[in-house]
Design a protein that fits this description.
Mean pLDDT: 68
Low-confidence stretches: 1-23, 31-52, 57-72
Number of domains: 1
CATH architecture: Roll
Number of strands: 5
Order of helices and strands: HHEHHHEEEE
């Protein structure tokens, strides 16, 4: 299976069906306002370090799906199921994240529909309909860490902390994105795709 199966059967289409998810929603958030306003008690809490001179993204609008509750911050990784391949999952997530950034910039609804749950896709679609703006994003660094792998009956959920440095335009300074994304997949499904089920902001 995708990620959990270390990508041994993964082809280019499978990659295009998973990721960039984190970045899709980041671009959606950015699309709500090209001039982010710092806001106390809401929005994004950045890293304490800014690699490569990147500026933390602060006060940008929150994306809430109503599917997840907020946490106080990123938590240490929990014990993981024996059949879960952590290294394979992370390698695939980062590679696909980079490949699908282009799909978000091109406003590819078909790909978005293929890798999100119904409620999340509805949010994404609303954001695209609200703005005709197109983007050209340069990813300078994409890191990821698994925080939790949880089985709930037939469903498996993986929480991933994405740590990304990016530049939205050649003349702009680099910025840092740091959020937790939740992906779900049926354990019995033959379909390899993981679906984005929600996002949590990392609080200080």
């Amino acid at each position: 299976m995708l990620f959990g199966g270390a990508f041994e059967h993964l082809n280019v289409l499978d990659l295009l069906l998973f990721a960039g998810i984190g970045f899709f929603l980041y671009r959606l958030l950015a699309a709500r306002g090209s001039q982010p306003q710092p806001a106390a008690g809401a929005g994004y809490y950045p890293h304490s370090e800014n690699p490569g001179g990147a500026n933390p993204v602060s006060g940008r609008p929150a994306f809430d799906t109503d599917l997840l509750s907020r946490r106080g911050g990123a938590q240490p990784a929990q014990s993981q199921p024996a059949d879960f391949d952590t290294t394979g999952f992370l390698n695939g997530a980062k590679a696909a994240y980079r490949q699908l950034q282009a799909a978000w910039d091109e406003r590819d609804l078909g790909t978005l529909r293929a890798l999100t749950t119904d409620k999340v896709f509805a949010e994404l679609q609303d954001q695209l309909r609200a703005s005709a703006e197109r983007h050209s994003t340069e990813l300078l660094r994409v890191d990821a860490e698994i925080l939790e792998v949880r089985d709930r009956g037939d469903e498996r959920e993986v929480a991933v902390l994405f740590d990304v440095t990016l530049r939205e335009a050649p003349a702009e300074e680099a910025a840092v994105v740091h959020e937790v994304w939740h992906f779900v997949r049926s354990r019995s499904s033959r379909q390899p795709t993981w679906f984005l089920d929600g996002i949590q902001q990392v609080e200080a």
